[in-house]
Structures are given as structure tokens and as C-alpha cells.
Amino acid sequence: MEINLKGKVAVVTGGTAGIGLAAARLFAREGAQVAVCSRSQSHVDGALRDLAREGLEVHGKSVDVSSRKDLFAFADEVESRFGGIDVWVSNAGIMVEKKIIDTSEEEWRRTFGINLDSVYYGGLIAADKMRKRGGGVLINAASFATLMPSVGSGAYAATKAAIGNMTRTLAGELAPFNIRVVGFIPGVIETPMTERWIAAKGKVLASQHALQRVGKPEEIANALLFLASDRASFITGTCLEITGGKFCVQNPADAWA
């Protein structure tokens, strides 16, 4: 079965590291014209250099995804450059490692701006841009925190729970325009966001997955390629768990004893 994105234009927010970069790389390898954005221009430049070394030409720009004006301007730029947008991956996110009761209002609002407002804007952009193409795919980054929050990252979990709900609602609203909306729920994945966490308690985190290991960004990207492709044409309004079996049983490590 061939799965590719030939002839498609794909945008990945937060596409310069971790899952976002892995998705951008794979989408480009599979024939898509790809654009990425990140808060940091240096991160954008570094990612584009790395991709260019692999023979992949990707467009990139520094964008504040919590700003409607900036994100729409980026979408307009991509549309002008490539002729339209077929796939939009709302992947950008931050995590404040604090209890809710210790989270400042500024940190709370910043987390919601980057994690949640950007997904809302992605939905608006999909409705605007993809209708012109006769349809498309909007992919939202949820989290295992969507299903089960943790003490110490409550603001992050609140945004991810909202993203799971918004994904279903947008799927219903955008279906008449042939726009599919799906989310993805990664397990613990080796990314810059989690590297300190994994370094501190990697064995414990691995033991919480049935596969007894944490995941790699490329493993998430493979699933996103399928969701973005026409092979997933009847999948909408749901979040795909890509967790290495994190939620299949309460005691996954016991099977390995």
C-alpha cells in the first residue's frame, strides 16, 4: 500500500524540533511541499540547514503561534508560495512544570495562548484555506495528558484536554467542506521538551508503557503521515493514541517480570 503526500502542501507549527521536525522531514520525503514555523528564528534556520543537508527543501519562518495576526500571515505566505494548503499540523506547544496552584497567571495565559489558541487559529485557517482546495486535513497535537493529567503540569494538561474536545467539534463543523480533523496522543517521546524529564526518571517512565520503552519522534511521524494521507479518508473526529501501550493495562511492567 502506497502512502505519500505527493502534490500536497503541508504546514507544521513547532516544526523545528522533536515530533514536528520528524513530521516535516517525513512529509517532505514523501513528496509534500512543506512549511514549518517556530518561535525562534535560530531554531528555524538550524532545522532548515539540517533538512537541506538531506536534500529536502522546506520553507520556514519565525512565528508567534499565539498571535492570530502572525499565524494567519504565515498561512497567507504559504498559500502564496505554494498555491494552497492541504495539511495543517498544529503541533506547537509548551509545558510549564508547576502545580496549578503555583502557576502564575502570566504562565497560565502563555500556555493557553501557545497550546490552545494556536489550535483554534489552525481551525480557522483550515476553514479558510482548505475549502479553496476542495478539502484537507487538520491534525492537532493532543497528549496522554488529554486522558490522564499529572501533578506538576496542570496548565499543559488543561490545554491538551481542550484540544481533544475541540478536535471532535471541528471535525463536525468542517466535515461539509471535506476537511478531516484528527488529533494524536503520543506517549512519552524523546524530544527537547521531555529530555530532562527522561534523564531524571527514564526507567520509571518506560515502565509505564506496555512496550517498556519511551518512543521516538519518527514513530509519531509515521502515524501522522498516514493520518494526513488519503489512506485515512474515513478517519475524522478522533484522537489516535500512539503511546506504546501506556493505557492498555494498569500494570504493564508485570508482563515483563
Your description of this structure?
The chain contains 7 helices and 7 strands; from the N terminus they run E-H-E-H-E-H-E-H-E-H-E-H-H-E. It is an alpha/beta fold and about 260 residues long. It has one domain: Rossmann fold (3-Layer(aba) Sandwich). Helix 1 links the parallel strand 1 and strand 2. Helix 1 (about 20-30) packs across helix 7 (about 215-230), helix 3 runs parallel beside helix 4 (about 105-130) and helix 4 packs parallel to helix 5. The longest helix is centred in the middle third of the chain and has 25 residues, at about 105-130. The mean pLDDT is about 95.
Quickly list its features.
7 helices; 257 residues; Rossmann fold; alpha/beta; 7-stranded parallel beta sheet
Describe the protein's topology:
Elements lengths: L8 E5 L4 H12 L3 E6 L2 H13 L5 E4 L5 H15 L4 E4 L14 H25 L6 E6 L12 H21 L4 E8 L8 H13 L9 H12 L9 E5 L15
Parallel strand pairs: 1-2, 1-4, 2-3, 4-5, 5-6, 6-7
**Name given to the CATH architecture:** 3-Layer(aba) Sandwich
How can the largest sheet be summarized? Answer: 7 strands, parallel
Tally of structural domains: 1
Structural class comes to alpha/beta
Residue share in β-strands: 5-15%
The number of distinct helices, counting runs of at least 4 residues, comes to: 7
Shape: globular
What's this model, at a glance?
This protein has helices spanning 18-29, 41-53, 68-82, 105-129, 154-174, 195-207, 217-228, and strands at 9-13, 33-38, 59-62, 87-90, 136-141, 179-186, 238-242. The chain is an alpha/beta fold and 257 residues long.
